[in-house]
């Protein structure tokens, strides 16, 4: 089967939403029903650049596969990839991926990263066949505040700050070492979010009016003082008693071992691998 590449910016939002929905129908991570408005939200939240993103279509003009790119500095991230069921194992996905990798090389990019659901072996095999290596396992967590996990003295050290101030904290641990979704770049896009800090470390939450409350990341954390970060998280969660909190499966395993599990969160069934290919 022959394919041709189509830049994402040449396609209408309705066309992109239709292909996206078809590609993710019955997906292990959940199906989607996006429309032009909701795919704009997806593109914005994922930091996707339509100028670098590509679709593949066949000679009949049918759109079959796509790869959305988020380019931060010289590290592009494959922020979303899918293929409609009728075109799987046709080479369409590999065609798009090879195009994206070649264009990244031509730009002089350093590496490409992506996240792939661990429970999706065909996708993992595709990326490995194109030279991607697994860097770490990523997990998701869900839970509530635990009143016994902190004391009043710790609560007095925590202050609410503007998200923009949280983004200015020194970043010893950030993208691309961490997944983009929990980096300062993603935190800058959180709608109606809140940030709380203790010392030079902050935690960013999603809109507290939305349930469950989303945990977006920890700007300023250096990957060393886990006790301090755990105490900060416990204090902040306690500000929203009897509410559920959710962390997408984009947190490295050590965050689960040091933060979420001790705070009695339960691990989600879906996990991911962070993968990287040097260019």
How is the topology of this model organized?
Blueprint lengths: L2 E5 L5 H11 L12 H10 L8 E5 L4 E10 L2 E9 L8 H16 L3 E7 L3 H9 L3 E12 L7 H4 L3 E3 L1 H5 L16 H4 L6 E5 L2 E5 L7 E5 L8 H13 L5 E9 H8 L5 E13 L1
Parallel strand pairs: 4-5, 10-11
Antiparallel strand pairs: 1-2, 2-3, 3-4, 5-12, 6-11, 6-12, 7-8, 8-9, 9-10
Helix pairs in contact: 1-2
Q: Concise description?
A:
By secondary structure, the protein is α+β, with helices and mostly antiparallel strands.
- Sketch the topology as an H/E string, one letter per element: EHHEEEHEHEHEHHEEEHEHE
Domain count? 2
Span between termini? 28 Å
Query: Strand share of the residues?
Result: 25-35%
pLDDT < 50 stretches: none
What is the radius of gyration computed over CA atoms, rounded to a whole number of angstroms?
A: 20 Å
Structural class: alpha+beta
The mean pLDDT is 94
**Number of H/I helices:** 9
Oligomer: single chain
Neighbour order of strands in the largest sheet = 1-2-3-4-5-12-6-11-10-9-8-7
Question: How is the biggest beta sheet arranged?
Answer: 12 strands, mixed
Which term fits the overall shape? elongated
- Helix amount, in percent? 25-40%
Number of strands: 12
């Amino acid at each position: 089967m022959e394919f041709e590449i189509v830049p994402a910016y040449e396609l209408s939002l309705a066309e992109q939403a239709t292909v996206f929905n078809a590609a993710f129908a019955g997906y292990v991570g959940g199906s989607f029903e996006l429309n032009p408005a909701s795919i704009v939200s997806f593109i914005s939240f994922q930091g996707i650049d339509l100028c670098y993103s590509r679709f593949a279509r066949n000679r009949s003009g049918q759109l079959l596969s796509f790869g959305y790119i988020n380019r931060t500095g010289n590290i592009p991230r494959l922020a979303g990839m899918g293929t409609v069921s009728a075109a799987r194992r046709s080479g369409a996905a590999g065609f798009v991926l090879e195009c994206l990798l070649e264009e990244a090389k031509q730009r002089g990019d350093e590496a490409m990263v992506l996240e792939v659901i661990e429970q999706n072996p065909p996708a993992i095999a595709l990326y490995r066949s194109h030279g991607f290596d697994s860097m770490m396992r990523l997990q998701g967590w869900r839970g509530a505040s635990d009143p016994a996990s902190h004391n009043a003295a710790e609560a007095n050290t925590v202050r609410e700050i503007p998200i923009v101030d949280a983004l200015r904290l020194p970043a010893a641990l950030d993208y691309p070492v961490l997944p983009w979704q929990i980096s300062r770049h993603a935190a800058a896009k959180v709608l109606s979010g809140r940030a709380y800090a203790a010392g030079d470390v902050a935690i960013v939450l999603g809109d507290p009016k939305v349930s469950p409350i989303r945990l977006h990341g920890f700007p300023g954390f250096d990957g060393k003082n886990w006790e301090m970060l755990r105490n900060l998280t416990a204090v902040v969660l306690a500000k929203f008693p009897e509410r559920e909190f959710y962390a997408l499966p984009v947190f490295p395993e050590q965050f689960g071992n040091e933060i979420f599990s001790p705070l009695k969160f339960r691990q989600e069934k879906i996990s991911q691998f962070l993968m990287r290919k040097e260019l």
